[in-house]
Predict the 3D structure of the following.
Amino acid sequence: MNKLQHSESATKRALGMSRYQLFVFVEGASDRFFYGKICDKVCDKVQFHIYPADEHPFFKTEMKEFDIKNTSGKKGIIFLFERFSEKRLLTIDFQGEKKVVIFFLDKDVDDLLETQISSEHVVYTKYYTLENHVFVEGDIITGVAITASMTPQQTREIIESSHDWRRKIAKKWLDYVKLCFFVRKFEKSVKERPEEWEKWTCRYSKPPAEFEKNCYQTYVSSEDYSTISQSIEHLYDCGEHDVVFNGKWYAHLLRKELPKTGNHSELLNCIQATLDFDAAWAEHFKQPLRKLLAKINL
């Protein structure tokens, strides 16, 4: 038996002997609560376990086999999906008991770049990231009030409307969003950028002067940039900015508007705790999971 066959056999046996019928892979440990609630709503009698990609033993074995280092998050999920698919481990029939694997991924702009994985075992967020869903569907007023030790009334003096606040922030960073997408789509042509420019949203409440001077003006005149600019502005005009605006930025930017609060993770967690997973929005995640379980009679 060669190495590949041994790895496949050992992993299938390990998964088969597990008490779980559903194996759920997510990008990071902080995603466990969100997807755990989704699974709770669907998996009435199905036992499941949620793994960040790099916490599963199979992942570490494959990392050594392919000599890959420091692959986690979304890259780790995609890597793991490819290995499970190659080894025919997405659906397992072990001694008459069927088990199944599912992967939850942030969409980012994969749909616009036409790089999404087409598989019933892969579910993407509707918006750019999971965090977009938290800020779109969660109660920001309550989350901020808890985190900043404020009353809801005090919070509304800063944020009158969650929808209007998100739109205001997205519009303020519109040119930056355009540049980020341009870089993703035409990465080879982008040679000069300010150091750590990707982290500006963690440091500033609006794009800094160096963005206008060193980055934006460098590419704004190109035909490719013009096409991207029009596409993103159309999404904004349709109220779909969360499709291209990175939701991970929201908590960082919101903290800068508050008189006092904890770190951005604490703020995000408090808003996340207000989500109603019985609401219609959650069907985006529950429906494909329900369909996958039904396929193997779980």
In short: Confidence is low (pLDDT under 50) at residues 1-6.
